## 1
Amino acid sequence: MPKEIAPPARVGLFVTCLVDLMRPSVGFAAVKLLEEAGCAVEAPRAQTCCGQPAYNSGDRADAQALARQTIEAFEGFDYVVAPSGSCAAMIREHYPALLAKDAAWSARAERLAVRTYELISFLSDVRGVTGVAARFEGAVTYHDGCSGLRELGIQAQPRQLLASVQGLSLKEMPDADVCCGFGGTFCVKFSDISNTMVGDKIASIEKSGARTLLAGELGCLMNMAGKLKRTGVQVEARHVAEVLAGMTDEPAIGEAGGD
Amino acid sequence: MRSTAHSFKDNAKAAMADPQLRRALDNVKTGFIGKRAKAAARLPEFEALRDASRAIKVHTLDHLDLYLERYEKNVLAAGGHVHWCESAADARAAVLEICQRVGAKTVTKGKSMICEEIALNEHLEAEGMIPVETDLGEYIIQLRHEPPSHIIAPAVHLTKDAIEADFRQAHTQFPKDRPLSEPRHLVDEARQVLRTRFLEADVGITGANFLIAETGSSVIVTNEGNGDLTQVIPKVHIVVASLEKVIPNLCDLSTILRVLARSATGQEFSTYTTVSSGPKRPEDPDGPEEYHVILLDNGRTQMLGNEFREVLHCIRCGACMNHCPVYHAIGGHAYGWVYPGPIGAVLTPGLIGIEEAGDLPNASSFCGRCESVCPMRIPLPKLMRHWREREFERRLTPAPVRYGLAAWAFLARRPALYHWLLGLEMRVLGALGRRKGRFAWLPFAGGWTRHRDFPAPQGKTFQALWAERQGTRAP
Amino acid sequence: MSGRDAILGALRRSLKRQAGDDAAVEARLKAYERGPVPARAQLEPTAQVDLFQAMAEEHAASLTRVASAQEVPGAVAAYLKAHNLPQRLRAAPDPELDALPWETQSLLTVERGRAEAEDTASLTGAFAGIAETGTLMLLSGEDAPTTLNFLPDTHIVLLKASQVVGPYEEAWDLVRAKFGPDAMPRTVNMITGPSRTADIEQTIQLGAHGPRRLHIVLIEDGA
């Protein structure tokens, strides 16, 4: 059961553009988990995209503009939480560097950075959550998103929380920590290379024997789910927050809606 | 060598269609990674050694001019010569001048990436000399007229069957029915062939893993012993090294050596670490009579002064490519020039130009595995991003990408418009995709849908649903 | 302008070199500041020798312990016999090796000098043994031709227990003590096991170009 250890906090949910547009149910799962952990959650409407596509394509000016916009939208909160390792890492690790030479903004970027977390690690590391009150029947395998893993050190936290889900068993895939080939714009700019990488990833997923694939990064999940569907592999893909929140009624990523 | 970095995408495609290459690359994935992890885990001080190694390079590069002067002074004191070469052409000319002066015919070579960078073999051949690569992997690719596909394992792209075929074709002096199917046979045959070459060589050329300022020494680190036979037998030993190889003293060498082999092959220590200072002394029974150092700049002084300085920390261990999923997919040749993998993606544009090698720093998913294992903690993704920034500034980024980004940024910077327009689009896409849950094809998404389906959005956006929820909650 | 001036000029501009920096470099060079030295290489002498042996063997070297220098010729002859090798040896022209009782091994032929192509086995002394990784340190000189370390198929090295040090830095301290602060022997060979290659499908093969066998005879001289 979730234990409320930390004092109440006001959390600004950075929904992320992919969750906002593609899979809002992940956002509501995040809200539920945060509220269960004693947080008052708001989702400022002034947010859009963290700026990764521009930043990683060498477009510093637009990346800086989006960084300023995001900082402004979230400055009033105790914490900023995102259901994505790469977006959280963008704010936490890269905003300060991006605005380092901007006298008016560098301190604001720093202040926001230290208060920004990826969802699962926030629940574990900041809110002291050690378990959830959810049930999920079956074996799952977990893919470590690269930014979350290597920039934010997220590896044990999702596994620890998943272990508390009733009915769930975690079957590790080989090379869980290897990139799935998404990489934002990389997957379309270098489509063939990305395809080989996601092909290797699908082979690893199959080796796990699990029927459900989880990750904390919707971009990776869409990439892997898209490849699973294209190749006809019977594995469903979901964001880890959906399972932890016990909100798995929505069809899995890329699954038919049923009408 | 002539670069094919400009056709990176085609190179990569061809590489991925080569089943023999895919088999060979599996060896990289399974071999190097586990061995490095084991070696690192066995040494509790490993992470501290990485920090210390990085600090040594930071300090040395901050004082590179002074250390190079000190290094030169000590080489001269030991009776050696230093040739300062600004360009690859200068370095080739300096080597050639020495070889011609001593009337060299056979020139043996230890493994040296700098010699690849300056395309020394072609040059020596054109002048009528016979350069012989003596590192087994380098020897194999020399037989095949190929460049190395990896900086420490040049023939890692080949299976033993391919090497057997090459040896049967090249070594016609041996009986046709000899057994040659096992690695042991191949190693023994190469040893026999190259032994003659070592003994007849007039000049031996090696690279240098390090140059020591304190003592004026060059250091080579090898496993085969070929570098040592290359430098001890001929009359002349030429060291070809780029100027960032210098480190202050032997304590610094000890520190960096502790991370080098562990990061590269997962060995505790390489078999041979050899520290050479000058030519043979009057009382020495063997050793070269002349000792020359070719000190190459080739664009490095420029990198020292710009945002790419950290690439000069590299000690050429190969850990970045060993751990790179892109390298695993395409191998080293696809990168099109001397340095493959993440380090090549940063270094190559600096050496041959971003116009030629523009794809390289883009062909990364920024997974960060390279940086996480780099013994010198070079922030390779950050440096690749810096190249992308230069490309973007100079409008070298492909037009569709630029327009796509501009459109996205235009919307993302206008939250109201963004939520309205994209909210509408998602409802349309959601309705269209609801029955199947995915799209096999979408306009403007060919890069995605060529290889995978595109999952359909759920319909309403989070912001739309959140507004509804707030509305119902409102008093 | 010479290449030297051009390169150094470009470096000074890139680095914004200032007067007085040279003193910092001089101080750094002579401080011999050690990085993190592995705890495993800092043991008392007996354990150090044991670690040296374990690490050398891990790297595919073999090692025999003998109680005194008097037993060395016998141990060498026995090693050659055990491996079906000819009883011939090219020994370094080292007075210490000359002084060993070779006459006790009547079947063994010992020649002195640098290695020749046809030599099958060599015998050299060593300057130090480094326990950290089971590494031998050999210095070139009048009594120590470098070719002996690489040309013959079998390299036999004589090492005294008292020569075994812990980490690499201690071996370099000894080199400095012997040659002075700025001088070095022409060649310092750090050797860890026999020659090897993994260039063919990453399978490890011994004896790529250098010795196939590295055998250490360790004299337990009560260190």
## 2
Amino acid sequence: MTRVRPGLTGVVVLLYLSLIVPVTHLISGFDWIGWYVAFGLMIFAVGLIGRAAGLANGLVGLIQAALIPPALTAAFAADVAWLWVIANARVWDRFSDLAGDLGRAFLLEVSPLVAGEWIFAFVALSGALLAWVFDWYVFTVKAPAATGLFAALIGVVAVAFVRQGLPLTVFAPMALAYLILLAVTATGARPRWAGGAIAAGAVALGLAAGQITPGLGIGGLVEGHNRSDVFIGGDNPLVDLGDDLRASPSTEALRYRSEIGPVYLRLTSLADFDGTTWLHRRGEQRLYTPGQSDYTTVPAGDIAGGAVGATAAVEIEIVELNSEWLPAPYQPIGLRGLDDSLRVDLDDLTLALMDGRTEAQTYSTLVWRADPGSHEARELAVQPLSPEAEAMLGAYTQLAADLPAVIGETARQVAAGVGDHPLDQGLALEAFFRESGFVYSMSTPAREGYDGDSGAVVARFLEVKSGYCVHFAAAMTLMARELGIPARVAVGYLPGNPVSQDGAGTWYSVAADRLHAWPELYIRGSGWVGFEPTVSRGVASAYQSQAPLPSASGAAATPSADPSSAASASASPPSRSASPPTASASPGEPGPDGSTGSDGSAGSSRGPSWQVWSLATAVLLVAAGTAPGWWRMVARRRRMRRGLAGLWAEIVATARDLGLAAPPWRTPAALAAELASWLRANNQDAAAAALERLASRLELAAYAPPGSSGPPGPAGRAAAARGPAAQTPASVGDAPARGTSDRDDAWAVIRGLRRSQSRRARLLAWWLPQSQRRAVRPSGPTPRS
Amino acid sequence: MDVSQQLANPSSGLGTFAAGRHAAETPAGAGFGVPADQTAVPAAALAVAQGAQAIAANISRVIAGKQKAIELTVTIFLAHGHILIEDVPGVGKTMLAKALAASVGASVKRIQFTPDLLPSDVTGSPIFNQATRQFEFEPGPVFANIVIADEINRASPRTQSALLECMEEGQVTVDGVTYGLPSPFHVVATQNPIDMEGTHALLEAQRDRFMARIAMGYPDEDAEHAMVRARDLAEPITALRPVASLDAVARMIEAGRRTYVADAVSRYAVALTRATRLSPALILGASPRAAVHLLTAAKALAAVQGRGYVIPDDIQVLAEPVLAHRIMPAAPARGTEAIIQAGAIIRDCMATVPVPIAAER
């Protein structure tokens, strides 16, 4: 016998709450616990109340599930929703944004996840679903042991995502709560230790899996350690970058003070290209501890930098950026003020923090600014390098075998006539992109189906001439390699906008959506030199513009570069003047478009999806409100097919719906008599007669010896059984009843019962059918303990 | 809503259980009567119904306004069960027992139980015959078809036991010789529920032997007045003549025994009995013998109503008379309150057992 068990709910809630312990290692802060508890308890409370009200278990589960979407809407998008709970386009956008944040975070972030709105939404949703699953398995499926599997699943996730590994003790509360649940639900001779063993095995398996595959699900660009939550991490860093770009908010990520005008802040570089994907090149690494107050030299490899250039100081203040990579202008030669050690990639000077995060760090870098356009540099460029350095550079000119030919052809066309100096060729390539009709567009690649960075995508990009930084950078890098110039894709931040000025330089503010990719070419004698092929973005070769201009020989060699670089280099206004075109593109990128764009769907597809969402919410709400009624109709259909007993059960249920007492302990004869007299009192004589016929037929079918069918017809039997003194007028109505079918009679009775009640009672009967409440068994006249 | 309250209240009289076809004519009874349409009824059941109605009518000539008690008594009699009539003095317990005996042409003995009554006064004892110079067994009053044991609780437990052994075994053993009792053999015992000095209330095990306990209750005002007027002239009991022969009674009992019981119905009887054992209001529920008695009585009731099969209504009607005297409440009431209390508990138990409806078999 099932009965409401508040104690059991308490134990399930205990198990649910015990899962908080391992998850605290997964999410930083404690604010999320409130959401987890609130949504879980809501589900459990609805379950408890529903069952206490006597609703069928399945029905309770449906109501619980239907409540989740409106509750989420009310919690996270009430300000934009209709009536706080009904979804509309803006609610849809809100959740799209949250989902975008969520997806990115799960792909990229390193535990503990930093709490944010999306974390709360995710915790609330998972909490509600978990509570629902617990409730469903314990009360509806009646397999409480199964909750262990879901609890173990949470454990597996926690183990898998927490980098440092989890002490087993965090699972103790969970195990304890689970054992209590098993003990409470164990029935007599059949203890459910089997289920417990399964669950324990699952937990052990989860732990083992966690040990075997540390960092499961978190793609590492540089194996095992260098993970950034900013954009790089998945299988395809540049595609991720595009996604990030579309989804990033325009909030300030960092600010810097520069003595030398705007600078690109580099996070890392991608050099290994297999034809489809760009990856960070693994090279030698060195541990490095920056000084607190004095600059200490950043270790660098043979090919890290060049010989000709100047130093400048850039002070960086991280506002809101969580990454393991330190943003820094190239080439950092000194660092100070950082309270953490770094791993330095000797090849490309990617600075990876050992333990901490970039968040809230303030530090200064001493930057070596190559001057590739200078005379000395141009002279040095022809001198041979050491064999080791040549070998290292070789890796940066490798090209995938199946690279489309059009890339090389285009490169050679562009470079024709500018001489064989790599700087000239690089500037020619840059000018090609900026001046031959390329258009910056976040949406075109996605729409045209060539989003990404593979060779084929680059070829298509050269044809369509529309894309964003990833395409420009990848295309130019490949073209440079076709020309024999070592090249790689740098990723980091655009220079940003100047905000204020003080004695030590200009402060620039960089928004999170200034994520960028650009090519770096190795110019012998000068080292790695960045270029800016992306139209309407950033400043074209801002830092080397000083070099070519004063250099007499370079001036002639780089005519094509001059117009653009001169314009942008003249002062910071050009850097701003680059903003208008950027701004014209930006309505489409960092805003709501970005989130849906990242799904690969164009903006037009959003209309139907939110309407569907709203409709679904409305339908769910209506369904939840009227679920008992629908459930009742299903039950009626089922019963009406189950012969006489089913018909009778349906009549009894209808009577109960209408507020007439029809407890299960009343015999058919007694109930029939009572209901018949009620029907007659309400002028439903035909229904009363039908009811009596049905009751006597049922009695014969249910209790009489097999094969005995009241010879003169069941109706006659009913009259006969009523005894000699029964001279009720009902016997008159028995006569025409012979041919009527059971179903017809049942319908007649149901109709009669309905007509005998007021409209209000009928409506109530449909909306909140009492028959859907479980018949509470101890319903005797005197309450019993 | 008044109607639902009325429908919902199962304690609005025993009549509720017998509602429907029975309710109109016998508000508180098992519902006697020969079916109007006799073609639909098995001949055996019809005979039982007619016989039972005749007996009941005969009895009601001397006991006014107690239709329910009379019908129940006849039903239990035809179920071949012993009857315990328990009520306050002067409501016609003994009259009912005597009227029943007089109506069936059976041999009747009446034993007035007193504290000094000995077992041999009930069973009989060997008497020395001067003529044959031998001990001869002189049968006691227990050798009769119907034994009226008046005020059984006034006798010593030893004497009570002697009678109860006869009831159980249908025979008497004196000095190693076993004497069979006549058949049918019925004990109709009466008992006063008001505690009195020098009485020994029957133990549970002894009460269990009685198929049913019948509470008479006071007659209503008109019936009481009619009774007073009738007694003016003569004792009406002397005018009663048998309306059924012993043979006829034996045939009726046999027919009742053969009443069909569907599986669902016998299960319902068992479930009801078991429900009393789960009731927290009781420290002792009904025995398996109670379930047997319940079903046997229900079969007789079905036959008495001219029905060839038992329906759950039969079980419900008989649940209180058959079960109430066997249970032991956790907080027992005293006197006539105890009877009311036991009935309420049985009805509560009944409300916990759903009636089985198995139309497809």
## 3
Amino acid sequence: MSTLGRFLRNPAGLIGLLLLLLVVAAALSAPSLYPDDPLRLAGRPLQWPLTNPRFPLGTDNTGRDIAAEILHGARISLAIGLVATLLSVTIGIAVGALAGYYGGWVDDALMRIAEMFQILPNFLLLLVLVAVFGSEIGTVTLAIGLVSWPASARLTRAEFLTLRQREFIEACRTLGMRDAQIILREILPNALPPVIVYAGVVMATAILLESALAFLNLSDPNVPSWGNLIGAGRAVLRVQWYVSAIPGLAILVTVLAVSLVGQGLNDALNPRLRGRP
Amino acid sequence: MTALLAIRDLTVRLPPRGDRDFALQGVSLSLDRGEILCVVGESGSGKSLLAGTIMRLLPPGIAVAGGNLRLAGEDLLALPEAAMRRIRGARIAMIFQEPMTALNPLRRIGDQIGEMFRIHTRLSRAAIEERALALLTEVRLPDPRAALQAYPHELSGGQRQRAMIAMALALEPDVIVADEPTTALDVTTQAQILALVRDLQRRRGTAVLFITHDFGVVAEIADRVAVMQHGRLVESGTADAVLNRPGHPYTRSLIAAVPPLHAAPRPPLPPGTPAVLRIEGVSKTYRRSGWFGRGGPETRAVADVTLSLPRGGTLGIVGESGSGKSTLARCVMRLLRPETGRIRLGDTELLSLPATAWRRETHRIQMVFQDPYASLNPRRRAGDLVAQGPILHGVPRAEAMARARALFELVGLSPDSLGRFPHEFSGGQRQRIGLARALALRPEVLVADEAVSALDVSVQAQVLRLLADLQKRLGLSLLFITHDLRVAAQICDRIAVMRDGHVVEEGTAEQVFGAPRNEYTRTLLASVPGQAWVPPVVAELA
């Protein structure tokens, strides 16, 4: 059976994929459903959901339309997740591949650098970077990518360490293949599946990291991100809890979707699970 | 008299959508007290599943579909699981192929042997220890008291297998099932273990069901032989009858594939043949890196080896595991850098070449690897794997693919299979792909590192014939590394025997096999199983 077929037969993966498609659909429909700036004042503040047909999800404490913010926020969260993950996994694969393939002092040097990132909690390091470089949304995304690469580097390195000793890699060397070709064309395709699966975790973490920053009012205030909305709702949490709860639910669904897709991919790509009912 | 273990019409079903429906089909066998029955077959013949069925330890999805299995009249297949547990270990014991994985690495040997007594008897701790010590003495471990306290990794492979045998003997079982117990061992260790099994079995009168693929081992140890193919029993009888007068065509083909243990008649190389490959004073030391790269213990894997390979000839390097023969091959291929020495290919000194110059020279010397499963990139098509080398050396893609097609025919694979992935081929076919890949660069020298060791004996014979044929047609020179003296005798003009990194003897194949000068070579030759048995020339029987 093909990898896709195995993925689609897995209930967890399938549910995750459907949820993810839902979030993507929300992000795509935002400009047509709510063409206006989602951050503009739309009506009387703090209207409960389902009370005013103009605002199905109500309004927040500054009178913005929550539904518009949620849909536009989906674009921001997905974009942050994708870009940060891409950056993190790219750095991770490059570092891990070099460290695992060459070993020796290259490995020592690169892994010490990775450890420097790992000894600080991700979020603390992120706070430092944002404090130094500012909280513009692009900067925040880059910072998230920058703090989360060591784990994928270690994963890639472990794969390379075992694969580089296989006879087929020795065979490539005896054929006269260059190191770059061996790394990119021979080892990397074999090392990639676990890293791809792990990218799901990175993406979920990236979305959460941005929300956490926004909750502390440290993310870009000029974009309609879900985290910003939760942060705004903090002031009225005890009475108008829905202002924080609705974007919280959106984050939950997105992170769950990404994690389930990752798990489904893991099951589909893991050869040891093949053939199980 | 009823047999001790009687198997009648045993049929075992495999999970649906497999290669075949049944792992075993209508197998009937009997094992009497005090005899050794060898079950022989190639991989996939169902011989290991037979052992699993007897122990009632089958993998999930595989189930007995018919027949019965009686131990001294008691139907094992009808027993409840709890009753079966009392039989396992106590009345039927098992010895596995790889003692390192069959023993728990975290527990001492004495503790693991003692477990047999703790499960099945109510002996006191002191009594258990005494019994364990007696057992380890009986299997002739050099220092039984120390072995009792040792962890599995502290023993050598042969010692571990002795400990496994002690464990199997612990409760004086009626039947011992031994699944390829000597396959993972070196030939000299194998000879000792076989002698031990034979000796213990005679003294105790235990019945042994001995599973093996090696006819040499069969000749060494069997009272009776059963030959299996594709889950069916094709022939059984006394060892003498099956080995010397095989009736079934499959048995005949298996026996015909067993190489005899004397140098095959080969036309001698013309005198004054120049050397194509010269290995001069090569040494390679492995150093376990301690803190800051110093202080770790050293192992001299290859110590000052000087050899030469005559053009168009075959130089065999034989030795046991750890003798340094594979390290030497990897030094020749520049996969490892030796500390000292020179390797000359024709007039070129390989070790001093800069990396780019070496990449250009790689087409002159190529390697075939041991493991047909690990030596091909699972994500590349067979045709690409073969065409890869020429493309790297500047051959246009279309021409390289044409070359791959021609090579597939040369090594006996269908050119239609160029587009298939490695996992769609059998082990022997994959080894042919590896051979085609090495030949695609039209090398002068082919280094074959245990290239036929992982193959079944009939496939091994085919690949060896192919190698000899290609050598004649293409004028190849072969550096042939093997632990199997029978194989070396078939294909080599000259033989070098290695031990602990040193070449202890080097000479023509006739000389090394016929009149070995070195003590170690003589031990090695004496250890080859079944040397008293000369495989009959089956063509005469047919």
## 4
Amino acid sequence: MLKISHLKAGYGDTAIIWDLSLEVNAGEIVALIGVNGAGKTTLLRTIMGLLAPWSGSITYRGRELTGLATDRIVGLGINMTPQGRRLFAGMSVEENLLMGAFLRRDGEIKADLERIYGLFPRLGERRRQTAGTLSGGEQQMCALGRSLMSRPALLLLDEMSLGLAPVVVEMLLDLVLQIREQGTTVLLVEQDVEEALLRADRGYVLEGGRISLSAPAGELLADRKLQEAYLGL
Amino acid sequence: MSKRVNYALFAVVVLAALLLPLTSNDYLIQVATGIAMYAALASSWNLIGGLTGYPSFGNVAFFGLGAVLAAALSVNLHWPYIDAALAAVLGSGLFGLVLGLPLLRLRGHYFSIATLALAEATMAVVTNVNFLGGGQGFSLPLLGSGKIFYYLMLGIAVLAAAGTYLIINSHFGNILLAIKSDELAAQSVGVNTVLAKSTAFALSAVLGAMVGVVYALWQSYIDPPTVFDPGITVFMLVMTLMGGAGTVAGPVLGAVIIGVLTQLAMSFSKNASSLLLGLGIMAVVLFLPRGILGVHRPAKGGERRGARPLRG
């Protein structure tokens, strides 16, 4: 579904990603793990067209994405839940969710809104509340809900667990399984490596802007070196 | 305040402004013309600086370009002034749209400094092109009573305020609000932010140029240092911030307050008005960072009205 080959990207004169290749197949949950500064967020931003790659290619369903504007890429069915939530702080919860459906023109937006409130009853209770006043967990639910409102075929999740209580992290990641059941492919960027690998099909380890390891999630979980490096076991 | 109260207030203010020339002297009309002019200019600045969150320091470029283009077309090509004015407004809007594309890639201070340079560069070009009047400027025929210009400026100010109201309550207004609150998030939900920002900049340019073409005729003599004075941008900005950026009435309120205070200070000494402006800026920054109309609105929290679905 998504195929990245020999990608190089960065900011200004500084390359962050060097010769990166990876693949995500339809229906999968793929975890991308790596320490701070490994290039995870840079990769997601490059996929979304928020950052122009220096070289290499990104194809989605056989179509080249590099050079396309972000709104075109969103229109093709890819959506990112950005790191740090990045809600429209002055808008209400409901307005934020509706912004997620920005490019949609079908008549099922209201129905999807109710579906999101079914998924996150807390958001339903606070639908008129300003998004900036939500708790961290609620904000992350709202950000995820906003992404789902675009009905993405491929969802890129950037560090959902950041700053959240373990019980909320588990709840959100369990939801990712549910999202996949409903037909959305997921590329999961996580620092909570164990929780991510427990739910993913496959995993890539990103180190210094390159993929250093790629294996089924179960194998990565059992990998001794990885356990030492990321799981603190 | 409820919608009804706002509409009533708007009607009263416009009616009072319309009746003003009946009761007062020439001096008062001239001052009121200046205030209406700045209300329109501040409202035009508010579109890009307040609604979109891009603090432009170069909006005087559109005012000046409007004035100079209209004068050049009417004096050099002998166009009827109304045609020249229309062409000048459209030309300035196009100028804003095209230059907005590169300039609006910059953010924060970088955008401010680039727009400051844009205004200075525009003045430099105008000063060196004979068709645009060069350093000499233009003399335009004197036109009848000052009341005409008062009503023209007032008309543009009302148009600017009504336009701002319509934009704020429109789909486009929601897009600008999204860009202002988090541009990356706006891009991520599929907003074509480049197009939206450039459109806001172009609309700001159109309004600024409208004021410029009327100003040229009102003053009947214009030259580059006058119509490209960076101080004009500073006034637009300070008035908007003082009244309340991103609101409909804020720029108008700011223009009235600063306009009246400036006149009062002038009666003491010419320098007193600059002093007052400086103190005003400090007071706004320290005590009213959200402007006069912003004080009553909660910065965070509180309920918002029901949301509407958005479509791209």
